[in-house]
Write a structure and sequence with these properties.
Helices cover 34% and strands 24% of the residues. The protein is an alpha/beta fold. The protein has one domain: Alpha/Beta hydrolase fold, catalytic domain (Rossmann fold), CATH 3.40.50.1820. Helix 1 packs parallel to helix 7.
């Protein structure tokens, strides 16, 4: 697992984002957009994920795209990410796009390290995830969600549930008193991932007091 650091490491706010090789070229633009949207001083740690379907999935599940199933390796990934969060003087926000967004939400149920979650187009269609949320207790104060307005208009019967699931997820969090926001973006799942991720990170950063 390789870590790419951006910004001032001494900043009081650290954003942590699991990424793949397609995300890395977009990180600089994402950071510019975050900086445009918030005056909060931050640094960002991009965590390179080698096996996306395994390393970010909270439990094993059948393949949804092609033949590659989900391996359930998120627990090990979280253990490595928590090593980045040793400075008690900092606030930490975990976030990401797609399955990384799902991982971010799940992580806040597994530990109390993160002050907020920033999940853009999270894969909340993941089998059993909303039930997991309903039965568990999230351990952060705020969650910023977003979804493209065309993401639920897909022929894939599993991912087509994403609109209903994210509405349920938002409702669950709000009913528990969590400061949860849900923003709708234009387009399908593959549009403007860097801009969408920047927007949820900026909203999450604005919610943090330090």
């Amino acid at each position: 697992m390789k870590i790419y650091g951006y910004g001032d490491a001494a900043a009081p706010l650290m954003l942590i984002q699991p990424v793949d090789s397609r995300d890395l070229p977009l990180i600089e633009n994402e950071i510019k957009e975050i900086s445009r949207l918030t005056d909060k001083k931050f640094c960002l740690s991009a965590v390179k994920i080698e096996d996306w379907n395994n390393d970010l999935s909270p439990w094993a599940a059948p393949a949804v795209f092609g033949k590659e199933p989900f391996g359930g390796g998120a627990e090990n990934t979280l253990k490595e990410i928590l090593k980045l969060c040793s400075d008690k003087n900092k606030k930490y926000i975990i976030g990401g796009y797609s399955l990384a967004g799902l991982f971010a939400v799940w992580s806040a149920y597994r530990c109390d390290v993160f002050s907020a979650v920033a999940a853009a187009s999270p894969s909340v269609w993941f089998p059993g995830f909303v039930d997991f949320m309903r039965e568990g207790e999230i351990r952060c104060a705020g969650v910023c969600l977003s979804l493209g307005d065309k993401e639920e208009k897909t022929k894939n019967p599993v991912t087509a549930t994403v609109g209903d699931r994210i509405r349920e997820a938002s409702s669950i969090l709000c009913s528990e008193g969590i400061n949860c926001s849900l923003e709708w973006n234009e387009g399908n799942h593959f549009k403007d991932a860097d801009i969408r991720t920047a927007k949820v990170f900026a909203r999450a950063a604005e919610s943090i007091q330090y």
